[in-house]
Amino acid sequence: MRAARIDRPGALALVDVEPLEPAAGEAVVTVAYAGICGSDVELFRGGRPPGFVEYPLIPGHEWSGTVARVGDGVDAGLVGRKVVGEGFRSCGRCDPCRDGNAVLCATGYDEIGFTRPGAWAEQLTVPAAQLHVLPGDVDLRAAALLEPAACSAAAVARAAIEPGARVAVVGAGALGALAVQLARRHGPAEIVVVEPEPGRADIAARCGATRVVGPDAIDDLHGCCDVVIEAAGSTDSAELALGLVRRGGRLVLAGIPPAAATVRVRDLVAARVDVATVFGAPSAAWRDAVAALATGALDPALLISHTVDLAEIDTAIALVSGSMGAVGKVLLAP
Asked: 14 pairs with which residues across the strands?
């Protein structure tokens, strides 16, 4: 089968690999669409931290597809079903795993698309217990973004948004735009998005932001927001987000900066700001995102700007890295 493989940083090629067979407890999924995000560009450039990548590697942690075959011990009724799946491999026995937090598994980090073969291929293998079955009429293009949507759902859950709250979201990339859609369900009075890039600002507005402003137009927001979700992951975005939170408010950090970021701890303590972080998504957040898609409360397709054949992987990487102009979400079609 075809797959896009990174043998080492900077060395990306379309290759032929052996067809997959499921082990006991596994399912083989035929990939319909696979997303590309900034962390995948990190893989290509070699910027992923040690311990969070193993080369050579078939990337792809955002995906949707259909179950092709299953291994021993797996319900044969899954075959033919549309699915998405959690990416973190885990022991299933430690306390975090038993609580539905495989991202915190005591055995350490192990994730499809980073340390295990991912969805930049015609098929991938997934533990059947980590699959989420989708309605039969679901749009698999939209469903391919349920992984970042689950992360956004985790951020919104940690934000504990109350009806009538004033909410700010810093960054209107995939995490931020999806967080806007999911936050609307909680009845905030306002969702202000801070985003400098015009194309992303337009997406944020279509996702339900009541106002979109640039970082140079936030004076009226300083110290006024009940909840702030930081989803940009730039070097200074966490500090910007902290400046928006009112005393006693909540700050959720979902973006991962590429370098050391400065946050004023003294200001955190003095303002008694509650801080939460998100890395990956627990099972409950996956279920929430899937349900939101199924009921129409979530429409990830609003973010998609390009669908590219797997054979054009170089073009897809160039699109996401920004070397071909500003774009929305890019999907691969294996």
From this structure: 4
User: At 21, is the secondary structure helix, strand, or coil?
Assistant: coil
pLDDT score of 328 more than 90:
no
Q: Look up residue 285 and give its two tokens.
A: 């957040």
Residue 251 · residue 274 · CB < 8 Å = yes
Pairing of strands 274-277, 245-253: parallel
Report the chain's terminal Cα–Cα distance, integer Å: 10
Question: For 6-15, 138-147, 235-244, which range has the lowest pLDDT when averaged over its residues?
Answer: 235-244
CA angle 4, 315, 148 (to 5 degrees): 70
The pLDDT value recorded for residue 324 is 47
Confidence of residue 331 (pLDDT cuts 50, 70, 90): very high
* 63-70/82-85 β-pairing: antiparallel
| Contact present, 183 and 164 (Cβ < 8 Å) | no
Radius of gyration of the CA atoms of the chain, in A: 20
* Three-state secondary structure readout of 132-192: EECCCCCCHHHHCCHHHHHHHHHHHHHHCCCCCCEEEEECCCHHHHHHHHHHHHHCCCEEE
List the one residue out of 257, 183, 197, 260 whose CA is nearest residue 225. 183
The model carries a pTM of 0.95
Q: Who wins on pLDDT, 192 or 269?
A: 192
- Strand, helix or coil at 183? helix
**Helix axis angle, 174-183 to 146-159, nearest 10°:** 60
User: Tokens 């999806």 appear where?
Assistant: 178
Do 159 and 294 touch, CB atoms closer than 8 A? no
Q: Which residue ranges form the domains of the chain, and what is each CATH number?
A: 2-144+299-333 (3.90.180.10), 149-277 (3.40.50.720)
Give how far Cα 77 sits from Cα of 69, 128, 133, 134, 152, Å. Answer: 10, 12, 11, 13, 30
